[in-house]
Amino acid sequence: MPSTSPAGTFPAHTPAASQIFTTVLTHGPLTRQEAARRAGLSPAAVTKAVRPLIEAGFLVEDAGPEVRPAVGRPANPVRVDGGRALFAGLKATGDELIGVLTDLCCRIRVARRVPLPGRTPSEVLPVVADLVRELLTEAEGFGVGVLGLGIAVAGDVDRTAGTVRRSPFLDWRDVPLAGLAEEATGLPVTVDNDVRALTVAEQWFGDGVGLADFAVVTVGAGIGCGLVVHGRVVSGAHGVAGEIGHVPVVPDGPPCHCGDRGCLEAVASDAAITARVREVTGVPVVDAADALALARQGNAGARAVYARAGEAIGRGIATVANLLGPERVIISGEGLAAYDLFAGQIRDAFTAAAFGSAARCEIRTRPLPFEEWARGAAATAIQSFVGR
Predict the structure, then answer these.
(1) Which residues fall within 8 angstroms of residue 68, CB to CB, at 6 or more apart?
(2) How buried is residue 143: exposed, middle or buried, by Cβ count under 10 Å (0-12/13-18/19+)?
(3) What is the C-alpha separation between 111 and 99, in angstroms, rounded?
(4) How many distinct helices (H) and strands (E) make up the chain?
(5) Four-CA torsion 128, 4, 388, 209, nearest 10 degrees
(6) In whole angstroms, what is the distance from residue 89 CA to residue 345 CA?
(7) Half-sphere exposure of 243 (CA within 13 A, CB side)
(8) Which residues lie closer than 8 Å to 185 by C-beta, 6 or more apart?
(9) Alpha carbon of 111 to those of 198, 237, 318, 374: distances in Å?
(10) CDD domains from the entry (predicted)?
(11) Angle 121-140/177-185 helices, nearest 10 degrees?
(12) pLDDT tens profile 293-343
């Protein structure tokens, strides 16, 4: 499939150019002086980095009557021209593909959802190609090129190799997704774990902007955690950093699909909660929506299951705070639909288990639809394009 874009490349491939562009992208508009201070670079280095970015149209200099010119160098703020380029992002679930088209500032311009006919790569790839083709057609109306595609998948993903090592919801093992998707779409492709992709979006464009150390904890079909330490998203030596879903939180608790017992995911995931509600109440709830409805009707057993899940999540978050000392933990995921049923237990368990100053960590909730997870995938494509 041919791309609608010209061969778009980032116009300056020096570390300073990438750093300045990212600084303006996440914090701008900024004057050159402010950008130099935030990036820790000299004014001369900033001027050199900014020039080709302005010439290529990726940065725009705003001149206004309220801006007083400085002697020697322009004091006008520079900002990213979000409309200069577009990026596509896809989030794959077990039965659906969610796609978005974003601008360079990762603002969603188009969003689509399509069902998956099956879960094998041979069934998923044609849907990827069709959805990207639809997004490329939409992009023609904006008059600029699509310069990259990001794909977010739950599980163990090697971003560098572009390989999905294992995805439990798709039942994939060692799928070279980036190469297959590039062949199917004609776009440069970045593949990453879905929680890490969401963390990139929060770091560059969301509640993590300006924070050197924070975490994103997602609750829902699984329990995930994205980590930012010293300003960088952490993958770990083997790409599985942040797997708090498999931290034991209940001694001799229920069995987990990983083979252990009492894991956070075995207590607080949607499937675990649903199964536990059936067991405790005898009501044949089918899914998380049924379990939630039963709890909201006042069923004491169902409400106790959610309280137990909240305690487990609070202990899991405290483990992250104790180990890494983040300034903020952002809780997200589809499981937040039940937040009113376990918010108190999360905070109480966190306070009880967080050690010393770790208890000062801010807990913030951020309900996000799956379109925002697809936006996270687009953020990884933007990140790859900029070379960060």
Answers:
(1) 75
(2) exposed
(3) 6
(4) 12, 15
(5) -80
(6) 35
(7) 15
(8) 1, 3, 128, 129, 132, 133, 149
(9) 16, 34, 35, 9
(10) ASKHA_ATPase_ROK_CYANR (cd24073)
(11) 50
(12) 999 999 999 999 999 999 999 999 999 999 999 999 999 999 999 999 999
Distances (CA, A) of 229 to 12, 224, 324, 339: 27, 16, 8, 27
Give the integer Cα–Cα distance in Å for 129 and 99: 11
- CA pair distance 311, 388, nearest whole angstrom: 37
Q: Whole-angstrom distance between the N-terminal and C-terminal Cα of the chain?
A: 27
Q: Does residue 378 contact residue 100 with C-beta atoms inside 8 Å?
A: yes
**Read out DSSP for 153-186?**
ESSEEETTTTEEEEETTTTEEEE-HHHHHHHHHS
Gap between the Cα atoms of 61 and 78, Å rounded: 4
Prior bond of 115 cis (ω within 30°): no
- Mean pLDDT over 249-275 rounds to 91
223 close to 269: Cβ distance less than 8 angstroms: yes
DSSP state of 12: -
pLDDT for 348: 96
- The torsion angles phi and psi of 191, rounded to 5 degrees, stand at -115, 130
Could you tell me what percentage of the chain is helix, strand and coil, using 3-state DSSP and rounding each to the nearest 5?
45, 20, 35
For the CA atoms of 378, 383, 384, 388, the dihedral, rounded to the nearest 10 degrees, stands at -170
* Nearest C-alpha neighbor of 184 from the set 157, 156, 151: 151
Give the number of other CB atoms < 10 A from CB of residue 330: 24
pLDDT in tens, 338-382: 999 999 999 999 999 999 999 999 999 988 889 999 999 999 999
Phi, psi of 71 (to 5 degrees): -75, 130
9 is written with which tokens? 């490349």
Question: Could you tell me if 112 and 151 are in contact, meaning their C-beta atoms sit under 8 angstroms apart?
Answer: no
d(C-alpha 121, C-alpha 254), whole Å? 32
> What are the structure tokens assigned to 344, written together?
């108190």
**CA-CA-CA-CA torsion for 188, 193, 199, 203, nearest 10 degrees?**
-30
The helix (H) or strand (E) run that includes residue 112 is strand 108-115
